Amino acid sequence: MLQRIKAVFSNKLLSNSVIYTLISFINKGFPFFLLPILTRSLSTHDYGEYALFRATTSLLLPFIGFNLSEYVMKNYFTKDEYPLSKKISISLMVNIVVCILVFSIFSLINGDMVYDFVHIHKKYFLIATVITLCTSVNNIERNLLRSENNTKLYSILVIGQTLSFFIGVMALFFLHKIELDLLIYVELSTFLLFVLVSIVLLTKKYRATFYYDKKLLKLAFLFCLPLVTNSLFAYIFSLSDRFIMANELDTKSVGVYNATVQLVSILQILAVSFNTAWTPFVYSKLEQKINPTKLKKVQLAAATTFLLVCIVFYIGLSYSFELIVSKKYAEGIPLLKWLILGNFFQLLYWLNSTILIYHKQNWYLAIFSFSSMVLSLGLNLLFLQKYGIEFASIVFLISWIVIALMTFVKSEMILKKQNLHNNFSGR
Description:
Layout: H1 2-10, H2 12-41, H3 44-65, H4 68-76, H5 84-107, H6 111-118, H7 122-147, H8 151-174, H9 180-206, H10 214-248, H11 251-264, H12 268-287, H13 292-325, H14 336-358, H15 362-387, H16 389-425
């Protein structure tokens, strides 16, 4: 028995998955405890606008972050004429310059136009740009920690940031001052604090500074452009339903839909945690030219386990939904099965997309995401107003099925080709 336990923890992928899962459960626990407080303290309208604020932050990430955290992580495992420190430096420079540009442009736009565009107030949009910059810089630092297998510092930073936000919101709660403005200001303060920590760590360990090199910038751009396009399309088909909902229905509907999504996102902890360990694992194994059959076995085991968890999670959440978020959000119960299945297919997508990224087949991911985005936008724009928020959750599921299947087929083609190449080289 002891030998089996030792064997489990000697498996780097499995042990890191366990660690990241524990980190994520702790990290997600704080927002989970906040959810009943926010849904009861804020009106459904204000909670809906807060959901749109968070969605705006996510939609801005491909533009400001430009997926440079993935570029840095990929280059941690590969070497060329440029040292990693310069790649980190130029990534930070691009993030900062783009953020300043976006912030400046929207500062000059009339507030009513901004509200009509994203259904949040102008000041919230500007705050979202700053938070997006902080997120991108934090992602660079934390992806490096993942690559180094430095789970201790990774957990301190991730949990510390969430805990700081939790304490800030709880302070507002006990002071009876939970309102949308203060909630967003607390979130901004938390991100500013931890981005300073990330900058200090990057500067100290990797000597990151402002750096420009035309050739390196071009290499980073060519690597990231398809990833950015893919991320943008993915975010649009995942988040555009909130904005369409606000336009076709109302922000109350957005609040109900988002509260349901937040509950289901607890399930996503397992998927995200596994993917956090899966990405560097796949990169290192593919670099070692591992037999693709071994990779497929791990994929199958992960997918089967996650499906069983999804079934149990659905049964439990169906009975506890109103207890957690209150009866005024009961309209979200029928959405659960569709959103949970959507998260299952999202894991299947992640299991295979990493293979495409490693083999620099990033444009395929962009094409797949574009297809799902068009499908999602088209269906929601045509039928959301008529069929309501449950229809949006069904479209969410359909979109992830489409992109997961296309990514699976392409990854199978890549692995088959690699296997043939390995067999030929081994002769």
